[in-house]
């Protein structure tokens, strides 16, 4: 029975990572993130408490919910970039 030949290639070495660590976020990032989430929450709560849809913006009607949830979602999306 014939013998197999040994490997001529060296062992696997992983490629060098060319990416540089982006580092921490700017100082304004967390306050803006939390501010957007809090502003959205206040917007929605104000809409529900007003009862007659008088606040925060009467011309928007039920779209006030969309504005509030949009603000909250913007803040939550920022959490994915938080380091």
TrEMBL record:
Name of a matching Pfam family: CrgA
Chief location: membrane
Domain of life of the source: Bacteria
Membrane-related topology note: Multi-pass membrane protein
Cellular location(s): Cell membrane
Residue ranges crossing the lipid bilayer per the database entry: 28-49, 61-79
Keyword Metal-binding tagged: no
Region annotated Disordered, chain positions: 1-25
Keywords: Cell cycle, Cell division, Cell membrane, Membrane, Transmembrane, Transmembrane helix
Function: Involved in cell division.
Family: Belongs to the CrgA family.
Protein name per the record: Cell division protein CrgA
Native source species: Ornithinibacter aureus
Gene: crgA
């Amino acid at each position: 029975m014939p013998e197999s030949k040994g490997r001529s290639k060296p062992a696997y070495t992983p490629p060098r990572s060319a990416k540089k660590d982006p580092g921490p976020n700017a100082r304004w990032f967390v306050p803006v993130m939390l501010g957007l989430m809090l502003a959205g929450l206040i917007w929605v709560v104000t809409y529900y408490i007003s009862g007659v849809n008088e606040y925060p913006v009467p011309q928007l009607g039920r779209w006030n919910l969309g504005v509030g949830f949009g603000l909250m979602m913007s803040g939550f999306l920022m959490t994915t970039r938080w380091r």
